[in-house]
């Protein structure tokens, strides 16, 4: 019988989970969502919700995975062998499959931009031309598909090598590099004339901009930025030895996620404000505004190329975790089966992503509920499947696991006082389900 893999060290696990959590959620999504929702007041709410909602949920998934040492599906089956709770794992696998199908398309866009940055094609363009370039890239079927395929192949190559030889090695290199590159970008952005307006926008809450939408968006961003709700973290934590301190691991991952989100804001908003761009540009903030911003900065082409490398690193680390839950659930602990499963699963994900890749070109007129396929897939994952999965996990851990078992598992390898445990338990049992229901009801337009 094949043995269950494990992370070689705590830092390897932290970097891998942080890479999964950060991804495009912190680097791409956080700045544009913050820009559209008031800046500083959004950041304040994001911090509050991340600490009091996201962190407890992260610990819950840690407990499920580490206690069973099984993949996402089997973890629920081991704890609740006579019920249907293991379908939470299947839901996570299905959600991950759909998520990676359109996520890989965005990864392909990053590759396309990176190639253009190194070939000099992003230099000396007007602001309008940057917008036209983005439209050209996403509407070109050949380029969109080739770039998406390249992104998937890189992801498969790393994941098929396993945890210690693949994901761990890649994360150990990519995550430190991500921090170094971000620091370089932040320093350059902060040295621009007028940069402090951007800093104030991000760090100084303006409560006149506080709206119900801002609260809902911050709540959703804090929850989803940590990759909780689809059992990715259950899978990653199943590779943890019992000696690891789970509460401290949560603190480390949450801290890294918050730091990267703030650094992303400090890299973007000072430059945007200094050069007169609109902070609420939207999802295209990075792909349209950033190249235009860096074009007006000394050595801007170099800095933008660095940023694209950083973005590619972050996108890949998230993709590793998404594909891993699929592969681990099918291959179990069979190393030989893992390689075959990774390539077959990855290729199927690519095929499933073809409609998303073509959504802005040849399939732009094919719409369901007035949405192209890319937007529909994003909507299903972000607004329905993720909150629903998170709700089920929160219910599962308080219904199917006793308080004593939870307390004992959390305190293997670490310590958590009974007071903190009680706060965490009641948060999982009451506060988080209510928060997820609010997100879900908002996503379907009821509130």
From TrEMBL:
Pfam families given for it? SNF
Q: Which residues cross the membrane?
A: 12-30, 42-64, 85-115, 144-163, 175-195, 215-239, 251-277, 297-330, 342-364, 384-402, 423-446
Q: Which UniProt keywords apply?
A: Membrane, Symport, Transmembrane, Transmembrane helix, Transport
Q: State the membrane topology.
A: Multi-pass membrane protein
State the compartments where it is located: Membrane
Q: Does the keyword DNA damage apply?
A: no
Matches recorded under CDD domains: SLC6sbd_Tyt1-Like
GO cellular component labels: membrane
Q: Which domain of life is it from?
A: Bacteria
For this protein, the record's InterPro entries field holds: Na/ntran_symport (IPR000175), SNS_sf (IPR037272), YocR/YhdH-like (IPR047218)
Q: Give any GO molecular function from the UniProt entry.
A: symporter activity
- Which family, according to the similarity comment? Belongs to the sodium:neurotransmitter symporter (SNF) (TC 2.A.22) family.
PANTHER family from the xrefs? TRANSPORTER
| The name this protein goes by in its record | Transporter
Q: Whose protein is this, by species?
A: Bacillus solimangrovi
């Amino acid at each position: 019988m094949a043995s269950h893999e494990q992370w070689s060290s705590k830092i390897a696990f932290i970097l891998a989970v942080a890479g999964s959590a950060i991804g495009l959620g912190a680097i791409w999504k956080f700045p544009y969502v913050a820009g559209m929702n008031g800046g500083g007041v959004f950041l304040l709410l994001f911090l509050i919700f991340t600490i009091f909602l996201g962190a407890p949920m992260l610990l819950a998934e840690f407990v499920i995975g580490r206690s069973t040492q099984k993949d996402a599906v089997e973890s629920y089956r081991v704890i609740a062998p006579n019920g249907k709770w293991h379908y939470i794992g299947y839901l996570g696998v299905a959600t991950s499959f759909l998520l990676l199908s359109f996520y890989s398309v965005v990864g392909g866009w990053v590759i396309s931009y990176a190639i253009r940055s190194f070939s000099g094609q992003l230099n000396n363009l007007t602001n309008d031309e940057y917008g036209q370039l983005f439209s050209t890239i996403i509407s070109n079927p050949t380029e969109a598909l080739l770039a998406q395929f390249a992104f998937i192949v890189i992801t498969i190559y790393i994941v098929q090598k396993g945890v210690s030889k693949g994901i761990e090695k890649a994360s150990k290199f990519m995550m430190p590099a991500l921090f170094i590159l971000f620091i370089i970008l932040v320093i350059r952005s902060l040295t621009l004339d007028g940069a402090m307006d951007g800093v104030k926008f991000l760090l100084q809450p303006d409560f006149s901009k506080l709206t119900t939408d801002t609260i809902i968006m911050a709540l959703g961003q804090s929850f989803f930025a940590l990759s909780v709700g689809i059992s990715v973290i259950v899978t990653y934590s199943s590779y943890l030895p019992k000696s690891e301190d789970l509460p401290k691991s949560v603190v480390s991952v949450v801290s890294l996620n918050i730091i990267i989100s703030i650094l992303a804001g400090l890299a973007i908003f000072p430059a945007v404000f200094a050069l007169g761009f609109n902070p609420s540009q939207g999802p295209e903030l990075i792909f349209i505004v950033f190249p235009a911003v860096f074009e007006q900065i000394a050595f801007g082409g170099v800095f933008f190329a660095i940023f694209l490398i950083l973005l590619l690193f972050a996108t890949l680390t998230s993709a590793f975790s998404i594909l891993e839950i699929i592969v681990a659930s099918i291959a179990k602990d069979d190393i030989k089966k893992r390689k075959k499963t990774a390539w077959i699963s990855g290729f199927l994900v690519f095929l499933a992503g073809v409609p998303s890749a073509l959504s802005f070109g040849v399939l732009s007129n094919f719409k369901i509920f007035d949405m192209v396929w890319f937007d529909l897939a994003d909507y299903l994952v972000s607004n329905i499947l993720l909150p629903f999965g998170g709700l089920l996990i929160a219910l599962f851990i308080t219904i199917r696991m006793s308080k004593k078992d939870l307390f004992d598992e959390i305190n293997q390898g670490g310590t958590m006082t009974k007071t903190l445990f009680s706060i965490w338990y009641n948060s999982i049992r009451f506060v988080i389900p209510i928060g997820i229901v609010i997100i879900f009801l908002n996503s379907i337009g009821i509130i």
